[in-house]
Design a protein that fits this description.
With 254 residues, this protein is an all-alpha fold. Helices cover 75% and strands 0% of the residues.
Length: 254
């Protein structure tokens, strides 16, 4: 008798493999629970209970694509609900299984690594996140290409967590390298491109280049207004920084 996927050929098992109908029924149940989350932004508890029930079921083995997909959605929904530490652990636990199933350079595997790194950073350990991104980005560039959108987002997050980890000069340099790539791949008015330019200005100010930071903010504002609108929170932030600096200079004049 052939072993089921994920089982040793020498494993003892009793009875026939699950029928196609049983597999389809379990898959349909997962799809229905996932659809609940898509429609309502909810479904976390239902999906968690469903995965627990299927964990010991021979119908859908742990590496089955539907199980891997459901586990990824569960981790993402828990992250969006604000429980970042739990989501980080779920992504970490999912990674070896999805690597075994799809390979270490598959786009979905790289996405799980990215989300694990992001949750690590947002859980209060930006230095650890920076290190995870440093390991991830070369693999993603080799697999997806340096100009892939996913790689651009990884590099943006890498720069952000590098700055949060305290290496402001390195973060500034990472943003300098990132911005031409983001402009080419995402477009000059994309929110992530504009945000990278905003963070570059902030990092320049953080390394005592106040004049350079103000020049960057001044050049950025018209692009923010065109790309995001004059009342977008980030546009308003940039305008406020410029106005505050202008007021400071006015009061310091003799």
């Amino acid at each position: 008798m052939n072993a089921l996927p994920g089982q040793s050929p020498n494993a003892d098992h009793i009875g026939a493999p699950p029928s196609r109908a049983a597999v389809d029924e379990a898959s349909q149940r997962l799809e229905e629970v996932l659809a609940l989350g898509y429609r309502q932004g909810e479904g976390v508890s239902e999906l968690g209970e469903c995965l627990e029930e299927l964990a010991g079921d021979p119908v859908l083995v742990p590496d089955h694509p539907d199980i891997l997909t459901a586990r990824g959605h569960l981790a993402h929904w828990i992250w969006q609900a604000g429980n970042i530490a739990e989501a980080r652990e779920l992504f970490a636990a999912l990674l070896p299984d999805i690597e075994r199933s799809l390979g270490s350079e598959h786009r979905r595997t790289l996405d799980v690594r990215r989300r694990w790194a992001a949750c690590t950073g947002w859980s209060g350990t930006p230095a650890a996140a920076r290190n995870l991104y440093a390991e991830l980005i070369p693999v993603a560039e080799r697999s997806l290409g340096a100009d892939h959108r996913d790689v651009v987002h990884m590099r943006r997050e890498f720069a952000a967590f590098t700055g949060q980890a305290g290496d402001r000069a390195e973060a500034r340099d990472l943003y300098i390298d990132l911005i031409p790539l983001a402009e080419r791949v995402l477009g000059p008015d994309h929110i992530d491109t504009l945000s990278a330019r905003m963070y570059l200005a902030a990092r320049a100010d953080a390394v005592s280049d106040s004049a350079g930071a103000q020049d960057l903010y001044a050049a950025l504002l018209p692009n923010m207004e065109r790309g995001l609108g004059s009342q977008h929170p980030r546009t308003r932030y940039v305008r406020r920084v410029i106005d505050d600096e202008a007021a400071k200079r006015a009061t310091s004049r003799p």
